[in-house]
Amino acid sequence: MSQIHLLGFPRIGAKRELKFLVEKFWKNEIDDAALQAGARELRQKHWLLQKGAGLDISPVGDFSLYDQVLDAQVLVGAIPRRFGFDARTLSSEQYFQLARGNAQQHALEMTKWFDTNYHYLVPEWQADTTFAANPAPLLAQVAEAQALGIQAKSVLVGPLTLLWQGKAKQAGFDRLALLPALLETYRELLAALHSAGVQWVQLDEPILSLDLPQAWLDALADSYRQLAQSPLKLLLATYFGDVSAHAALLKTLPVAGLHLDLVRAPQQLAAFLQGWPQDKVLSAGLIDGRNIWRADLDAVLQQAEALRAQLGDKLWLAPSCSLLHTPFDLAQEIKLDVDLKSWLAFAVQKVNELKLLKRGLQQGRASIANELTASNFAREQRRTNPRIHQVAVAARLAALQPGSDRRSSPYPLRAEAQASWLKLPLLPTTTIGSFPQTAEIRAARAAFKRGEIDAANYEAAMKAEIELVIRKQEALDIDVLVHGEAERNDMVEYFGEQLDGFAFTEYGWVQSYGSRCVKPPIIYGDVARPQPMTVSWTVYAQSLTSRPVKGMLTGPVTILQWSFVRNDLPRSEVCRQIALAINDEVLDLENAGIKVIQIDEPAVREGLPLKRGDWDAYLAWAGEAFRLSCAGVDDSTQIHTHMCYSEFGDILPAIAALDADVITIETSRSDMELLRDFGSFHYPNEIGPGVYDIHSPRIPGEHELEKLLAKALDVIPARRLWVNPDCGLKTRGWPEVEAALQAMVNVTKRLRQQLTASV
Ligand SMILES: CN1c2c(nc(N)[nH]c2=O)NC[C@@H]1CNc1ccc(C(=O)N[C@@H](CCC(=O)N[C@@H](CCC(=O)N[C@@H](CCC(=O)O)C(=O)O)C(=O)O)C(=O)O)cc1
Ligand SMILES: N[C@@H](CCS)C(=O)O
Ligand SMILES: [Zn+2]
Question: Residue 323: which of 502, 35, 55 has the closest Cα?
Fold first, then answer.
């Protein structure tokens, strides 16, 4: 009998229970026992939900209080020595300090998990890294599942992926040198799981979708030959891309099963089916784990039937990847348009789709005839729905001429035009846009949404907040101000709510990092901007001060990347549509006298295809979309962009080709390492390397800021250097923000004096 299973489930909970639980612990409102009990309850709820939906086997180990890659580091006993913690006796407080930093130590670096909007904590690898199996946390969860009568499939980050996703902390250190010791630890973990009665272990190796050096492929083959000596059945899970280049190798590995992402890379199937070893399970990832569209049940069943004919019971069915990346349950969306709702499936619905596929395979199509009819109807209704297509949007796109995306003059001329009115000091200071989204701001928005306060009251509350932010920045003596983004729930959702072609949910939360979630809008139709989205707030902020206020927009690539995107058009075309909508806003801001405008593009790097061969095409359309979004502005209008949590080293020419006048980037967690790349590339325009990490509650010391700025001045000439934090300040509290910004301004002023004196 074919099994159905999940690679992972959204642990955050239907109502973000995990977020609220963890944040209560951080605020000392609950103790560790309550934290653990709450987490246990959530896990149990999710397993029972899966069991109720007919899953044969459930993932255990996909749950995490913060991040599964951090948990993997704890499991193998390899937490950075600089913290002085012992993984085996790690307290919850210490666990969260690894993730969020403490007074002495900065947090583990955080970066994007492949091409998703999920952020993981980066392991730190060095020659003296040691490992020690610490299976207790995982075994406890296995026991919880077993107590509920759940057949547990343990989920672990695979050893090669764990090593690859970590960073070598010493120049020239080869992470593979750690593999033998790490494998020994995995063997111990597997032995412990076996003793606990586990039969299947899923080892996630998504790095197989990347371009891996041969040495890593050889190491992977070798490792799995060793690990497969365990009496456990190993399911090697690949996802996010095509791994057919390794088909021959993967088919010969002595693992019990292999998972393939057949949504992202359906074309890879042929390479695997040819000569598929009879004794191996093929887990077919046929349900989209990265998007929210309802499956075309008929088409997927056809695929499954064909596979079943060849593989028999060795066929397993699953979503393409962990459901961590999808929202929890569509049933909660009672306000969503009914047509649109009928086109969607969230995690719970995807589990149900698997159940139907299994029934269809086992009992024949007639057993799911009604569901097939409903699915076909939804597909047809979506395809022909008039709200999806806007003639004017298509016409505007078609009218674009080559060069429509270029500014009229090159950067040096623009810089002169901007300097002549901006008259900024050397090393101008600014922030990235958001200021603390306090509980009061969110409560006001929640009350407005519930109809408890009217629009006028809501607007007054937000304007009061904007005024506070302006006054505080003036008092801190910051040079280029922002309005603080109080009125925005999220930098993408806010725009999605105001653009045609977008729908938004009430509870469609997806974990972004730690306790932080995002609610990606759904792009279902052609995109256009019916009316200005930010102008009145920005103009209001500018009316309060004589200093320049930066207009603040989210760029087209980021809006695309952080939304659930329609799958009936190429992403490049959807992106171009968004670019034109943002361009309307840019020109309106400029007309209203806002002549410094930031277009945030933190997701450019994340959108990069996993295989290098696909990079150029992506960078060409993504770059064009960014440039289109700011096309047509005057030379004297200064365009900023901002990017965070990304490795840019390998795409610097494309970043430079965006031709923003100023770019602010995250660099502080990596100790300005990133900036070195910008320096050696001779990045031509202005640049503001983030001088402190805003994702940690830690306040930077002035000495530390001085050192970072000195490093920055080593590679960027002073006249092109800006000073700013890493990213927006929305997640921080006011006392930290004021203290940190004060330190930043103090250090900048001292440095300015020194630089002026030395000229
Ligand atoms: C910059 N980043 C972003 C990414 N992706 C985005 N889509 N947006 C981003 O900003 N990816 C990379 C990084 C990730 N960083 C972050 C940083 C911070 C958050 C975050 O703070 N998320 C919030 C949710 C934000 C939000 O939409 N808030 C809404 C709803 C607030 C809410 O929960 N209200 C409560 C009631 C409140 C009350 O009554 O007091 C409720 O509805 O129950 C809003 O402000 O209106 C989070 O809390 O997780 C995310 C990614
Ligand atoms: N302007 C946004 C950018 C975040 S990446 C903010 O400041 O929050
Ligand atoms: Zn940012």
Answer: 55
CB 663 within 8 A of CB 626: no
Q: Which amino acid is at 668?
A: S
Give the residue-averaged pLDDT of 286-301: 98
pLDDT tens readout for residues 651-696: 999 999 999 999 999 886 666 777 778 888 889 999 999 998 888 7
The ipTM value here is 0.95
The angle subtended at Cα 132 by Cα 128 and Cα 137, nearest 5°, is 135
> By alpha-carbon position, which residue is closest to atom 1 of ligand 2?
433
Alpha carbons 425 and 407: distance in angstroms, whole number: 25
> Is 433 close to ligand 2, i.e. is its CB under 6 Å away?
yes
Closest CA to 575 of 564, 562, 559, 597: 559
* CB distance 731 to ligand 1 below 6 Å: yes
Q: Are 212 and 241 in contact (CB under 8 A)?
A: no
**How far, in Å, are 66, 80, 213, 398, 642 from residue 107 at the CA level?**
13, 10, 29, 48, 22
Instruction: Find the 694 Cα to ligand 3 centroid distance in Å.
Output: 9
In order of 17, 344, 516, 706, the CA distances from 506 in angstroms are: 15, 14, 16, 44
Is residue 732 lining ligand 2, measured as CB closer than 6 Å?
A: no
pLDDT in tens, 216-273: 999 999 999 999 999 999 999 999 999 999 999 999 999 999 999 999 999 999 999 9
Task: Encode burial over 144-156: b for 16+ CB neighbours within 10 A, e otherwise.
Answer: bbeeeebbbbbbb
Rounded to an integer, what distance in angstroms lies between the CA atom of residue 65 and that of residue 90? 13
Nearest in space to 481 (alpha carbons), one of 415, 544, 553:
544
Give the annotated binding-site residues for L-homocysteine.
432-434, 485, 600
| DSSP secondary structure, 678-742, as one string | HHHHT--SEEEEB-S-TTSSPPPPHHHHHHHHHHHHHHS-GGGB-BB-SS--TTS-HHHHHHHHH
Smallest CA separation from ligand 2 atom 8, residue: 728
For residue 693, what pLDDT is reported?
Answer: 86
Task: Look at residue 201 and give its three-state secondary structure.
Answer: strand
Verify whether residue 695 is a known catalytic residue: yes
Lowest mean pLDDT among 7-11, 52-56, 272-276, 323-327: 52-56
Cα–Cα distance, 608 to 295 (Å, whole number):
26
From the candidates 194, 640, 695, 703, give the one annotated as an active-site residue.
695
Contact between 675 and 653 under an 8 Å Cβ cutoff? The reply is no
Q: What was the pLDDT predicted at 146?
A: 97
All structural domains of the chain, each given as residue ranges with its CATH number in brackets, are: 425-754 (3.20.20.210)
294 in ligand 2 pocket by Cβ < 6 Å? no
Cα 444 to middle of ligand 1, angstroms: 14
> Which of 606, 727, 731, 741 to mutate for ligand 2's pocket (most ligand atoms within 8 Å of CB)?
727
CA-488 nearest atom, ligand 1: 45
Of 495, 511, 515, 518, the one to substitute when testing ligand 1's pocket (max ligand atoms within 8 A of C-beta) is: 518
Measured in Å, residue 194 CA sits from the centre of ligand 2 at 46
Residue 193 DSSP code? H
